[in-house]
Amino acid sequence: MVLASGTGTLLTALLTAAADESYPARVVAVVVDRPCRAEDVAARFDIPVVRCALADHPDRAAWDVAITDAVARFGPALVVTAGFMKILGPTFLSRFGGTILNSHPALLPSFPGAHAVADALEHGVVVTGATIHLVDDGVDTGPILMQAPVMIDTDDDEASLHSRIKSVEHVLLVQAVAAFVTRGVTSHGRKARFS
Ligand code: GRF
User: Fold this and answer.
1) Does ipTM come in above 0.90?
2) 83 C-alpha to center of ligand 1: Å?
3) Ranges for the Formyl transferase N-terminal domain (predicted)?
4) Of the four listed, 6, 14, 20, 138, which is most buried by Cβ atoms within 10 Å?
């Protein structure tokens, strides 16, 4: 199960990998929270899409229950947030916690949040990167599973840097999902690792 809100390049990477018989995971459905290009990507690969928008619900708690139900209907073993720009609520986390992977465009714990690429540029760091981590109730605070660095060039702007980071995220996410479904993760307090 993939949750997305954006252009869907991470989703495309996963669906392309999953189209190969030898890849150990399949995408059962895509849930989006707004009209977005990820919906077109899912349609192109013939994957069911459910739109569950916060604005269609009386409040965040009701949306939390609705999106939990929408995902639960597909009975996924793993939920991937791939450019999903909403914070998941307590109902969702109590149902799927420990089985939600997020891809983040920075080397956490540096630059959490929605502006990670701009923040890294603004800060003047020389290296940033991509992180795959388990989702907990904080913002990009869950146990880290995989990371890879990306060098920042002096003439990078947000778009050029994000594009190179995304290329790394595509590879990392495909590897992380395969590792998760074949080997699982072990958890020792807050430090989770692939087993
Ligand atoms: C990725 O960089 C992801 O880490 C961030 O949003 C971007 C999503 O890209 N949260 P796309 O929509 O998959 O192209």
Assistant:
1) yes
2) 4
3) 2-177
4) 14
